[in-house]
Specification:
Order of helices and strands: HEHEHEHEHHEHEHHHEEEHHHHHH
Bound molecules: iron/sulfur cluster
Mean pLDDT: 93
Strand order of the largest sheet: 6-5-4-3-2-1-7-8-9
Shape: globular
Strand content: 5-15%
Number of strands: 9
Largest sheet: 9 strands, mixed
Radius of gyration: 20 Å
């Protein structure tokens, strides 16, 4: 089964409980913003600031443990550029976090694979951008990265480590997504495809040029396994809309059961939503999570507060990200233009039960999207 980021089952129930109790169940901890690659689609902005030391990270992990965090995902930049990564993971496992690591895997050798396995890292998410070196290395801008990444995936699997292949879909690789699916299966990985390409965290919109064309996106949605993975979620949202639960719900888990900590120790609403609650170099995690007015502002938003989205006929098809809305439209309550486009395409695919015809796609391309129709006098929340 292809995963398209739809939580399910027991994990979803635990997430709901954490949301009600406002427990930061999951934290994405960016332990560095340095990276060994230079991917074309990367939304992060590199800086030369002093990243958290091992001592600072150990203190923050203890605070997260106190606050009730269970799932700890370590990310970068590239986490393996830190020579003390093993010590960080050891400390996290001593505190009984369920640890996963997001990596391009290029720097992994046998030693790293062995300790990842020994320490019980539950999952390594490896970014793969194409089914061949030509496609993948064009994204990373580093010849040889595809070979190194695939070798590491093979080594991790041989060491018994669970590997998830994280595949952002963009103009350069979406046509090859079935080959990527086959590659993931051959290597024994669970593939997750993400059709969302975010703009830079400094609001530079240049990355929007990498987004897939409509027909390629529709072809992706039309794949039998992809349709099924979205259909279940859309049906769930139809039901929630019918009962009114959708408008009462929160747009996402950011600041309810999840947050991001950046490499400088700042607590952010999400990696995709750079609203900063405070610095862990100045205050404790619990103080920031509990008292920050910035995080509280995100926390207060319900879907029914989104002035355009709440009236939108595509809302049950939509995977709007608050971060995209904030960065791209400049407003936490606004539609996300790219989500509007994906929602329109997904509805067309689900209505048809497969690939829409060319006339339908042409009609969609010409019709104003919901977010464009009503871009007037939106309140700016922050
Ligand atoms: S801000 Fe976007 S990426 Fe972050 S949790 Fe919400 S929807 Fe997901
Ligand atoms: S399609 Fe656009 S306007 Fe409609 S709910 Fe999604 S982001 Fe909002």
């Amino acid at each position: 089964m292809i995963s398209c980021a739809t939580p399910a089952g027991a994990a979803q129930r635990m997430t709901s409980t954490a949301t009600r109790a406002n427990v930061p169940l999951a934290v994405l901890f960016q332990i560095t913003n340095r990276c060994n690659l230079d991917c074309v689609h990367c939304y992060q902005v590199r800086d030369q600031e002093r990243e958290l030391s091992l001592d600072e990270i150990a203190r923050i992990l203890a605070e997260l443990s106190q606050a009730g965090t269970l799932y700890l995902s370590l990310t970068g930049g590239e986490p393996f550029v830190r020579p003390d990564l093993r010590a960080i993971v050891e400390q996290a496992r001593r505190l009984r976090f369920v640890v996963s690591i997001k990596t391009n895997a290029v720097l992994l050798g046998e030693e790293e694979m062995a300790w990842l396995s020994d320490l019980g890292v539950v999952q390594v998410d490896v970014s793969v951008y194409g089914p061949t070196a030509a496609v993948h290395d064009r994204v990373t801008k580093h010849p040889g990265s595809f070979v190194a990444t695939l070798a590491a995936i093979g080594g991790l699997r041989a060491a018994g480590v669970n590997v998830q292949m994280a595949i952002p879909l963009m103009r350069t690789n979406i046509e090859a997504f079935e080959d990527l699916l086959g590659l993931a299966r051959r290597l024994g990985c669970r593939p997750t495809f993400d059709p969302q390409i975010s703009v830079k965290e400094d609001c530079n919109r240049g990355l929007a040029r990498l987004r897939s064309h409509d027909d390629a996106m529709a072809r992706f949605f039309s794949h039998p396994e992809v349709i099924e993975s979205y259909r279940a979620e859309v049906e769930h949202r139809h039901e929630a809309a019918r009962t009114g639960a959708l408008l009462r719900s929160h747009p996402c888990g950011s600041c309810h059961n999840f947050c991001h900590i950046d490499h400088l120790g700042r607590v952010r609403a999400c990696n995709a939503l750079p609203i900063i609650g405070g610095s862990l170099r100045e205050r404790s995690f619990t103080e920031i999570w509990r008292d920050s007015e910035e995080l509280a502002t995100v926390r207060r938003v319900r879907v029914g507060d989104l002035p355009i989205c709440r009236e939108c006929e595509l809302i049950t098809y939509c995977t709007r990200c608050q971060g995209d809305a904030y960065l791209e439209a400049g407003d936490l309550l606004a539609p996300s233009p790219d989500a509007c486009r994906r929602a329109a395409l997904l509805r067309a695919v689900l209505d048809k039960g497969g690939m829409p015809d060319a006339a339908t796609l042409a009609g969609l391309a010409q019709a104003p999207l919901p977010g464009q129709r009503a871009r007037t006098h939106l309140p700016v929340l922050l």
